[in-house]
Amino acid sequence: MKRLRVRQALGSETPVESIVVKGWVRTKRENKGFAFIELNDGSCLSNLQVIVDEGIAGWEDIARVTTGASISVEGNLVESPGAGQKWEVHGTSLTLLGDADPETFPLQKKRHSDEFLRSIAHLRPRTNKFGAIFRIRSEAAYAVHKFFRDNGFAYVHSPIITGSDCEGAGEMFRVTTLDPASPEACNPENDFFGKSAALTVSGQLAAEIFATSLGDVYTFGPTFRAENSNTPRHAAEFWMIEPEMAFADLTDDMNLGEAFLKSVVGHLRTHCAEDLALFAQWVDKELDATLDTILNEDFARVSYTEAVDILLANSKTKKGKDRFEYPVSWGIDLQTEHERFLTEEHFKRPVIVYDYPKDIKAFYMRLNEDGKTVAAMDILVPRVGEIIGGSQREERIDVLNSRIAELGLNPDDYWWYMDLRRFGSVPHAGFGMGFERLLMMVTGVTNIRDVIPCPRTPKHLEF
Ligand code: 4AD
Ligand code: MG
After folding, report:
1. Protein residue with least CA distance to atom 1, ligand 1
2. Which residue, among 70, 60, 89, has the nearest Cα to 26 in the 3D structure?
3. Fewest C-beta in 10 Å: which of 5, 55, 202, 349?
4. Alpha-helix residue ranges (DSSP H) falling in 107-155
């Protein structure tokens, strides 16, 4: 007997006899002589209505067919007389696969708070909202690969364990071996076979190796940051997509970032329409308008200096109150409130800010003629703020050497990186996009922990 996923069943062109459907019960209504079961198997947001009559094989278990229980039903897919859905299943036999005791099963048919669901992150994908998030996440990963493949980029795998700090911000988690004498204790003497090692904060430096050999490349993998994980936009473990292009400058980088975001949003709108509609209805009433803007309007482009001028000119509200918690002046790192003002209030569309002060940016960014700024760019989007951070890289070995010295980094850690400049150096540029920030943007979900399957926080480390 052929098993149909709920998605296939609901999309069927014709009735189908002798099928099996399997899934988890969302609700059951028992009437005299028959029962209606709403079945979900994770393949789509919608449930499939299953009708079973008293007396069919397995009917004796009907009382145990409760919300959350897993069942298998054999039967026929037939046209549904009721409004709302085209197809339903008339069961000829029912098998209870696993009980879900109504006294203890935590997901009953009502809205649960995100905070509560975070405490049962192992069960939350069985809710409509989190099922939708993780289907969108899966499709978004595909859209990312598709975009780069269609544009001739090669996918490279950058290391997770590394000896160099890409961002130079000291936000790394150390990797240590467990001490065999006392398995609970770590042995910092012996980090990585005698060397100091950490989890990567970015795959960029490795991507530069491959950009300067294969041409256009990208990485897509997990990255780790040991700071800031207590904001709704920062996670200690997140996934990052990092394209890197040879023979490219900052304008090419901005163009790529804009085309990339538009392409992924367009793909998701086509392929995740049902799931996205849930967020537009329940999570963010302006979601459709925001996504329309991202798709259809050119992103605003302003230099950091212009952005600071705009913020200064708007530092007071109409009523004369301070608009920002963090005061603005040339040289500050823009805070989320500043980024959100620029995209949500001032430009009302995504904004690319470029040419940042060198003192707030990483060592590898290309120094501009003015000696004060670097060829960096951040893409800011409504609700989320910074979604992409990138730059043209410093390809001049002498300038890079002096930046490394100026910032007090250890040149020995970067000998191989300097080789890329020593031998056949080329202008090149790239960026990093936080995959979870992208998902926040497309769903309107405001807490990063709700778009990661297993958020890594001190409270959430169980699996
Ligand atoms: O701006 P960031 O730190 O840039 C880099 O790491 C560069 N090496 C990227 C490159 O040029 N190849 O991080 C890039 C993006 C940010 O714009 C943000 O979307 C995301 O990564 N990000 C985080 N997402 C979640 N949690 C965190 N703690 C994040 N830190 C950065
Ligand atoms: Mg950044």
Report:
1. 389
2. 70
3. 55
4. 114-119, 128-150
CATH of 2-110, one of 2.60.40.10, 2.40.50.140, 1.10.760.10, 3.40.50.970: 2.40.50.140
Ligand 1 mean position, distance from CA 46 (Å): 35
Query: Cα–Cα–Cα angle for 253, 387, 133, nearest 5°?
Result: 125
Q: Are 2-110 and 124-450 in the same CATH fold?
A: no
Residue ranges of alpha helices (H) inside 223-283 are 250-271, 273-282
Question: If you count DSSP H runs as helices and E runs as strands, how many of each does the chain have, helices first?
Answer: 12, 18
Cβ partners under 8 Å of residue 443, min gap 6: 132, 133, 136, 276, 279, 283, 284, 287, 451
Sign of the torsion angle spanned by Cα atoms 158, 159, 162, 165: positive
Residue 216 Cβ inside 6 Å of ligand 1? The answer reads no
Task: Supply 444's token pair.
Answer: 């309107």
Q: What is the model's pTM?
A: 0.96
User: Cα(390) to centroid of ligand 2, in Å?
Assistant: 7
Per-residue pLDDT of the chain (463 residues; tens, 9 = 90+): 899 999 999 999 999 999 999 999 999 999 999 999 999 999 999 999 999 999 999 999 999 999 999 999 999 999 999 888 899 999 999 999 999 999 999 998 778 999 999 999 999 999 999 999 999 999 999 999 999 999 999 999 999 999 877 777 778 998 888 777 776 666 666 678 888 889 999 999 999 999 999 999 999 999 999 976 678 999 999 999 999 999 999 999 999 999 999 999 999 999 999 999 999 999 999 999 999 999 999 999 999 999 999 999 999 999 999 999 999 999 999 999 999 999 999 999 999 999 999 999 999 999 999 999 999 999 999 999 999 999 999 999 999 999 999 999 889 889 999 999 999 999 999 999 999 999 999 999 999 999 999 998 777 777 7
What is the distance in A from the centroid of ligand 2 to the CA of 82?
Answer: 52
> In which residue are the tokens 């603005």 written?
328
| CB of 238 sitting under 6 A from ligand 1 | yes
Inter-axis angle of helices 397-406 and 415-422, to 10 degrees?
Answer: 160
CA of 396 to the centre of ligand 2 (A): 23
CATH tag, 124-450: 3.30.930.10
CB-ligand 1 contact for 167 (6 Å cutoff): yes
User: Which of 408, 370, 376 shows the shortest CA–CA distance to 391?
Assistant: 376
**Taking the domains of the chain in order of start, what are their residue ranges?**
2-110, 124-450
